[in-house]
Description:
The protein is an alpha/beta fold and about 625 residues long. Helices cover about 35% and strands about 20% of the residues. It has helices at about 10-20, 120-130, 165-170, 175-190, 195-210, 220-230, 250-260, 280-290, 300-310, 325-365, 370-380, 450-455, 495-500, 505-515, 535-545, 565-575, 585-595, and strands at about 5, 35, 45-50, 75, 85-95, 95-105, 110-115, 135-140, 150, 265-270, 295-300, 310-315, 320-325, 410-420, 425-435, 440-445, 465-470, 475-480, 550-555, 580-585, 595-600, 605-610. Helix 13 (about 495-500) crosses helix 14 (about 505-515). The longest helix is centred in the middle third of the chain and has 37 residues, at about 325-365.
Amino acid sequence: MLQSPASCSPRCLREVADSRQHVPVHCHCRQSPQQLRGKHNLGVTLCPAPRPIQTLIVAAGKKGKGKGPDEEGRVTTTSVSSGIKLENVAITFSMQQVLKNVTWDVKTGERVGLVGVNGAGKTTQLQIITGELEPDTGDVIKARPSMRIAYLTQEFDVNPGRTVREEFLSAYDEQIKVQNRLEEVQVELENVGSDMDKMTPLLDEMEKLNNKAVDLDMSLLDSQVDKMMPELGFTPEDNDRLVASFSGGWQMRMCLGKILLQEPDLLLLDEPTNHLDLQAIEWLEGYLKSQEIPMVIVSHDREFLDQLCTKIVETDAGVSTTYKGNYTEFVAAKKEAIAQQYIAYEKQQKEINRLEEMISRLAAGTRGGRAASAKIELERLKAPGSLVEKPFEAKRRTFSFPPVERMGQEVLSIKGLTHGYRDRLLFKDATCTIEKGERVAIIGGNGAGKSTLLRLIMGEEKPVEGEVTLGEHMIKPNYYEQNQSEALDPSLTVLKTLELAAPDAELQDIKAILGRMMFSGSAMDKKAEVLSGGERARLALAKFMMTKGTLLVLDEPTNHLDIPSKEMLEEACKNFQGALIAASHDRYFLRQVATRVLEVDKGRFRDYPGATTTS
């Protein structure tokens, strides 16, 4: 347990030192005293330092590039009562304008979801908020200048060698450093005797440390951790367990707890559900819903956005648009807005055509006055701000798996499966069958054995007991591994990767498919080793979708895919005429695709008809 260091005002110590008297001197500080006697025998009565300082999680308040407080790119502290606002923000990288006109805000009690295709600038906006990036133009307006901004990323910042309690206390890094240095200075003061030349700089340092530790009370840290841990599901027995012994979901809870201990004014979350199982995702949703902290969420998990978000901000072609409600409501509202804009566009175009025809007809006759009036009305309709633009709707990317020709009715048979590793049993006498036309979702917690089951189906592992056999008639599996993008040959180009995957396909068909996957022109000649994570994921998906098979076996297929790519995969899976087995934590994907659910639980299969319906 951390103890409050015995420290007091350097003014008290100076009075003692200057008096050169070895007599008790009462401390002038405002707290109740406690006794500490140094080697120099000064009878100094010391007091504990006050309450803890809240460490800034992110120093969010940087100015724009060399600009003053009233110039473009500034950070201001007016016009919002809580949270933060981006106003007319723009930024360019390597001559490419990523953000052109971004304006949105988030207030206390609101949870904003940032959506857009990969590369739209979602994470860039988070980095502008934290001050990691500076906008070329526009303002970042904060409710107050010393806002504490927390950033929870998909890569959990934990030390596996610490105990759970040490990990939580590491949230108070600055306070602990101040405490440790105060203790060191006190020991040094005890050792200098009456040497004023050595004592003076130590007293100066102690004064600075005490100023830095205004309102610091280390004894509160333990009580704050004691309160936080059970809220996150940890028990007193977990205090001394190593962080490394916990799953990714529990490590995420530690990261979230460390952030909340620092009482942030704004919480940013970047793909927080990656690597989490369904239980951990649902816990995270419930916990975040109970918080009033304003939140900004970047996620491709549509169900997560549905459960949490109070409004959605879409970034498209560098411009932001705000919609009230969750993700599903955003999709409906956007569709309706496009439909209404198209109606207005058609109506205006019809009126423009009528006026142009009237002007052409009247100009040759004697009715010049009516023609002039029509010209004025036409100019008004075409004036900037009056002309209704034809709504742009990105063409929906579609794709289909190679057609299934002939296959038997029975696709997979599992009988009496018992399997595991060393002292860890995953399956105990598990049994099921899968037939043609079924699309089966495999669900279960992390470590339940979902990926192991898929490897058993593919013949990559042999069961300890029992049978896992494919049907006898034309059952050819096509396997999408969890880390499929990492298995790409880095030396092959994008085009060559697909040519080898589908040797019978026509070159123009392969190029058309790559175009749907947003690889065009010179991008097809890039080697896999230079592709971004999102590009590798799309290439791996294209390779999978070009491969012939009658049974699709998918392990977390939506990881690293943007929402349009997920939608394309969903449509292709629903139209596939063979059988499909998919292990995934993506509830939205499973709800769209699955006709049956197998839950792996305590070594057995729980079989549910219909799509997954997690709460």
